[in-house]
Amino acid sequence: MIKVAASILNCNFLRLGDEIKKVQKANVDLLHLDVMDGHFVPNLSFGIPILKAIRPIVSVPIFSHLMVIKPETIIDQFIPDSDGVIFHIEATDNPRLCLKLIKKAKKFSGIALNPDTALKTIEQYLDDVYEILIMSVYPGFGGQKFIRATINKVKQAKAIIGDRDIRIAVDGGVNPRNAQMLINAGADILVAGTAIFKSDNYAQTIKMLKYGYSK
Ligand code: DX5
Ligand code: ZN
Fold it and tell me: Which of 1, 6, 24, 63 has the smallest C-beta neighbourhood within 10 Å, fewest atoms?
């Protein structure tokens, strides 16, 4: 079953709580929190205080997507209030430590890859990850154009995973027009921000992401 994760990066922050309640009512499966440090990516977003503030009203699993340098130095602060933590392979010299800290807390772990990063960089960690997050835009901003080469990368990831129990998530520029191609290629989780929060009907958009336009 395909899951949709809502990235709140482009929601209406003036009404953050209402936006989260609305997207949950629209049957979203997961909440995706884009944490940016202004170094790993050329932008700042939000961090632990926002995670802690929203936690009480979130009824779906929260995945924190850490776009920060040296995630191992801060990951401990995100783990308690997150259900899953995703870090970038390009951002750390110590992926094993990140995975260990997440595992120790019995949370879901994810490794993210930038568009130019080869899948072979994470092959040695595959026995310890819950999900691979394939970036379909250069991280840093919501609302960017989907990079089509991602579709092939998803297929390659599927092949590399083999029979391991690992989910493939795709993040960036995902919308109802490219969702089915990603699902056909092997994606299990679609992360969408703009497509959901800039739409008039969140529930309909989430349905279209999962099942296509016709249903
Ligand atoms: C990009 C973020 C994504 C992105 C999703 O740096 O990791 O989660 O904002 O938003 P859209 O769907 O607008 O590309
Ligand atoms: Zn993200």
Answer: 1
Residues with a catalytic annotation lie at 34, 171
Our answer on whether the CB atom of 176 is closer than 6 Å to any ligand 1 atom is no
Confidence of residue 156 (pLDDT cuts 50, 70, 90): very high
133 lines ligand 1 (CB under 6 A): no
Alpha-carbon torsion (136, 141, 143, 144), positive or negative: negative
pLDDT of residue 212: 85
For residue 145, the 8-state DSSP code is P
Tell me which of 23, 31, 34 to substitute to probe ligand 1's pocket, judged by most ligand atoms within 8 Å of the beta carbon. Answer: 34
Token pair, residue 5, equals: 């994760």
Distance 193 CA to ligand 2 centre (A): 9
Residue type, 161: I
Is the CB of residue 139 below 6 angstroms from any atom belonging to ligand 1? yes
Residue 215 has pLDDT above 70, yes or no: no
Task: For the chain, give the mean pLDDT.
Answer: 97
pTM of the model: 0.98
User: In angstroms, rounded to a whole number, what is the distance separating the alpha carbons of residues 87 and 97?
Assistant: 11
* Amino acid at the residue 18: D
Give the ligand whose atoms come closest to the C-alpha of residue 110.
2
In this model, does residue 133 exceed pLDDT 90?
yes
Please state, as a whole number, how many other Cβ atoms lie within 10 Å of the Cβ of residue 198.
Answer: 14
What's the CA gap between 210 and 204, in Å, rounded? 10
